[in-house]
Amino acid sequence: MRKKSLFIAISLAVVLALAGGTVAYASMSKTVTLSLDGEKTEVKTLGGTVSDVLADKGIELGKRDVVAPDPDASIGEDSQVAVRFARRIDLSVDGGTDSYWVTATDVGSALAQVGNRFAGAELSASRSSYIPRGGVEVSVLTPKQVVVQTPKGKQRHTSTGLRVEDVVDELKLKVDKNDELKPAEGAKLKDDMDITLTRIESRRRVVTENVDNRTRVRYSEKMYADEDKVAQQGQDGRRRIVVRDVLANGKVRSSKVVDRSLVAQPETTVVVQGTATRPVPKPEPEPEAAPSPEPQPAPEPAP
């Protein structure tokens, strides 16, 4: 009977001790609102600082993580502690990649923290996409204003492409192997770029030109040296020429002769040139002298 009474007494003491401890814990603990990346929960802690709250929850901060208030700050009942975990975002902008650390949990907010919202850009992920703590990779294609010159005229175009060929595809331009595209299709697209498409065509044409006839002189002693005559009238010949023209947007850029052929032989003109010396003419006879005039009688003296 004595042993039973002793057991009851000991049990009662333990219960009272436990109850007292619970009351003491309840009176010493604090209720704190803990926000982790915006997700809020209420936690109880016996600690007196922000670091104590984090330690109670097993939260270890990295050097890029952000906590407010400061880890050494004191806390009280109904205090609020906010933690933002750092995340790495790898941005590939028009082919060039840079890495940033942000505390935002969605792509749109992360871009704002980076300092460029990339308005109008084409993203590989939605701006509302969640960023896990392991980070995210996002490709960004920025809009670029270009001027495209074609044989039909000039037009402005906005493209998020990476290469000139992207603009060609977007505008449905047909470019064959002979055409000229500057810059080339593989060139990196840049803002304010001028793109020129030149249509190159090749054509053949045939022209005919005269071939001057030659003159051959034949000498004859039967004609004087100052005489000549055409014994045979010649004719010009004709030559067929094939020309290849290179046209740029319909205008001749260069021409090259690819074939020549004689279709009519020229006929030689024959000229007869005299070689005989003309005889010296006989001199004219001397004219006869005129008779002397008869003398006139002297005038008579006046009376």
Characterize the structure shown:
The protein is α+β, with helices and mostly antiparallel strands. It has 4 domains: 26-84, Ubiquitin-like (UB roll) (Roll), CATH 3.10.20; 87-141, Roll (Ubiquitin-like (UB roll)), CATH 3.10.20; 144-198, Beta-grasp domain (Ubiquitin-like (UB roll), Roll); 202-276, Resuscitation-promoting factor rpfb fold. It is built from 4 helices and 18 strands. It has helices at 2-28, 50-56, 107-114, 164-170; strands spanning 30-36, 39-45, 66-68, 80-84, 87-93, 96-102, 122-123, 136-141, 144-150, 153-159, 180-182, 193-198, 200-211, 215-224, 228-232, 237-248, 251-264, 269-276. It has a 4-stranded mixed β-sheet. A 4-stranded mixed β-sheet has the order 6-5-8-7, covered by helices on one side. Strands 10-9-12-11 form a 4-stranded mixed β-sheet, with helices on one face. A hairpin with a 2-residue loop joins strand 5 and strand 6 (96-102). It is rod-shaped. The chain starts with a helix and ends in a 27-residue tail after the last strand. Residues 1-26 have low confidence and may be disordered.
